Amino acid sequence: MLGNSSSQIAEIMKERRRKKKKRAPLVGSTFADLYKLTGETLGEGSYGKVENCVNIYTGIEYAVKIIEKIPGLFSRSKMLKEIEIYHLCRGQQNIIQLIEFFEETSCFFLVFEKMLGGPLLDHIQRRVCFTEAEASRVIQDLAGALSHLHGQGIAHRDLKPDNVLCVNSNSPCPVKLCDFDLCSAPVSIDTSCTPTLLSPVGSLEYMAPEVVDTFLIDYDDDDDGTLSYNKKCDLWSLGVIMYILLCGYSPFAGNCGSDCGWDRGESCTDCQERLFTSIREGSLVFPDQHWAAISPQAKDLIGRLLVKDSEARLDANQVLGHPWILHGGNSNSLMTPSNLRRQTSLKDLEDFASRAMAVNRAVEDEVGKVVTASLAIRVPLKSETWSIDCSPLSCSSLSPAEQMSSKRRRSRVNFWDKMNKFCSIDELDLESDFFSKAIT
Ligand code: F4J
Prior knowledge:
The chain is an alpha+beta fold and 440 residues long.
């Protein structure tokens, strides 16, 4: 048949008009032309927030990261770098996929695929059963993501549980890594600052810039070893996550044992020193109470990740070849979900994990590793709100008050708000679990 009957043509035209009406405009669209916010906030951080949204034309749900262009805080070049990283990671199954982005007058909108299971630790604490085999799969996924990033010349440097999202609502694995957040508060740090490391006055009085810096894209040839050093920081972080996954508490803790108020957020020099010493010494323990049933292979892998000497630490590909990853863990139920539920605040554990990693990196830097764009940051007194300032290095010895009044670009973080409220094994209420809210 050469042609269609007129009624057929009329039908086709009608169908085309109908389809046309539904088709999304191709040019000049804004975020709001294509997506509708549902009002559910999925996450909030110094970068802005992540909201749930729906594509108006397909009805498919997404997560949108909204970053306001706040003068002095927002950096367009960092925003574009973040987008570029996502572009370099397209198709990688364990890194969240950026679907599209919009630059508008006052905001950037980054539309991501939706992860139905939400943040990893939130997911695990809701479960009745979480096994070594599942933990092994999570670590395999993360090592795969790191292997890809490192292969692209990108070091994450802020790997922490809240940047790990579960794809499905009914299983903790697979997981995907998110948050290539170059735009968060410490954006004021200018990497063109002179890269010199001040020696600390006192054991841990100064910390390196990694504490506040987030990601590093190092497209250089890595002549100075900076990239390989930063890659190894990611592997240390992976070790911390693995430890937390297997028991539900952090590997490093400090507690003087008296009722000093430390766990209520008050100041205790003794606790502070113990914590820092514990991190610095890397004194890793596997208390029998929660670790007796955990396989020797799992402990072996943690022991090869939480090594102080970053050169001796495994790299991402070696993790992928480790027996605990290759053969998977056993199917024994872990105590992680109930231990996580006993934490006063899961968020605080996550924050602690990232702070602990930062301190570890600072300590490593102290012993002479290569650091880019070093800034000295004095560990604040517990009551102080801290200012991180990208001033010339001479300014780093300013008192907190002087730093506060500095006119230079800066951002504030209440260090102790984040640092203190975590639970160590000593602080867990191990006798009771009244607050169980398991749903699976
Ligand atoms: O780039 C990001 N920075 C934070 C962040 C959170 C980023 C991407 C995605 C984030 N969160 C989520 N993304 C997709 N689905 C979700 N949180 C809960 N479900 C999610």
